[in-house]
Amino acid sequence: MTFDTRARRAVQGIHRAVEVMEMSSTKTPQRLTRFDQYREGKSRNKRIAAFAVGIAVPVVLLVAAALVLKSDRNPSVPITTPSTSVTPTSVSGSTHTFKAPFTYTVPQSWALSGEDARYFSLDSTVVPGGHLIVLSGVRAGRLDCTNRPDLSVGTSSDAITTWLSTHPALDATEPRPVRLGAATGSYVDVQLAARARAMTCPYGRQLVTRHPDGPQGWGIGPIDKIRLYVLDLPGGDTVTIVVDSPSGGSKFQDLMDQTAPVVESFNFHT
Amino acid sequence: MTWPKLERGDLVVHGGGSAAVGSSETFEEFYAREFPAVVGLAFALSGSRTASEDLAQEAFLAAHRDWDRVAGYEQPDLWVRRVVSNMSMSMFRRRYAEARALARFAFGAATTLPQLSADDAEFWAAVRSLPRRQAQVIALRYLEDRSVAEIAEILGTATGTVKKQLHDGRQNVVRRLRLEEDDT
After folding, report:
1. Do B159 and A203 touch (CB under 8 A)?
2. Within a 13 Å sphere around the CA of A242, how many CA atoms are in the beta-carbon half?
3. Tens of pLDDT along B134-162?
4. Non-local CB neighbours of A263 within 8 Å, separated by 6+ positions
5. What is the helix (H) or strand (E) element at residue A115, kind and residue range?
6. What is the CA radius of gyration of chain A?
């Protein structure tokens, strides 16, 4: 059984349970009464808490002051020497199961967050929205909600990035060349053209996709701005690196500035 | 994201009772319309038949307390879902709600949510075992049929993050329940 089938059944289970609850419930006015009672109780609790804090804070301050004075009088406290060791600012890694193997060097704030044969991702803990998604073997999507590939578009980097940069539903930059180890291709920045934003899809309109109905593609929503690196590998396969925008594209350039060095560290094997 | 604040004096419709600012919908109407779905969301994310109704009530209580402002939001239904999805994933809150539910049992009132089938319970248990954000994204996407953009707004995160968590959450559930890949 697939995820979608199992999820649909489980969702029905919750919906049925809530329907049963609704049918057997006659308590709506009581709930609102409870709200008011509960609110009164919470308000009383807040007053009590404020009173307790009012007493506790001066006591804690007095105790802290006494401890500080005591420690100042003690000359035997050892003075610690700052560590001379240098904290590494970047870490290197490599893929394990991803079918287009590569090595990378990233700042310490980036970490591996997912990997399987066709999907690899790195997350940043300090860059808002900082995710790098690497997908293998994707094709151009139909730019609709179906997750199906547009079979009229070729599978090479050149074919996909040219299609992206000229599609009437997209505002995209011209493809710019890039080489990451043995992988060569180009990248484009894309967003939906204003006239194409009315049609929305749950996952966004699919830019690139691998599996019909599967999660291995990447969609674009009305407010998104995305950079796609599409690269040809020596074996004939294609790999796509996705950098999705935070906050609806408003900080797109900041994110690109932060992620470009990470992407440029990718070294695909021959 | 931050929820937009409506300045007092803007779009104010002074109605009686708890009528909304900038909207003719009263809190009671909003509550009646949204409560069942919010209970469902709390049920999926907390896994507790006894606590989910209380969690939903707490979320609506928060809305009721600040209704003039919440009703001014473009979509107050998203706001209440954000509150309940955060509360449902918090152990402290869950215990607190469980305790209240226990007291309700002790005084003789019965919960009205029935038990899920073993298969459905297993699925939602697998979802709850995911990292917090992945679980919230899965529940909002499938249970509520929310779009990526709406989920991003509810959870106050970037759409790219939602897409990634949706992908990771699905893959994790597929592995945990040994489901087939959605692959052809």
Report:
1. no
2. 29
3. 999 999 999 999 988 889 889 888 888 88
4. A132, A180, A229, A241, A243
5. strand A110-116
6. 28
Q: Is A2 touching B (CB cutoff 8 A)?
A: yes
Among B49, B88, B112, B141, which would you mutate to test the A interface (most chain A Cβ atoms within 10 Å of its Cβ)? B112
Q: Global pTM?
A: 0.65
CB contact under 8 A, B182 and A2: yes
Chain B interface disruption, residue of A1, A5, A21, A210, most B CBs within 10 A: A21
| B120, B170, B182 member nearest A13 (Cβ) | B120
Give the model confidence (pLDDT) of A117-159 as tens digits.
Answer: 888 989 888 777 788 999 988 889 888 877 788 889 999 999 9
| pLDDT value for A105 | 93
What ipTM score was computed for the predicted complex, to two decimals?
Answer: 0.78
Out of B43, B146, B159, whose CB is closest to A224? B159
Question: In sequence order, which residues have a C-beta less than 8 Å from that of residue B183 and are 6 or more positions away?
Answer: A211, A214, A216
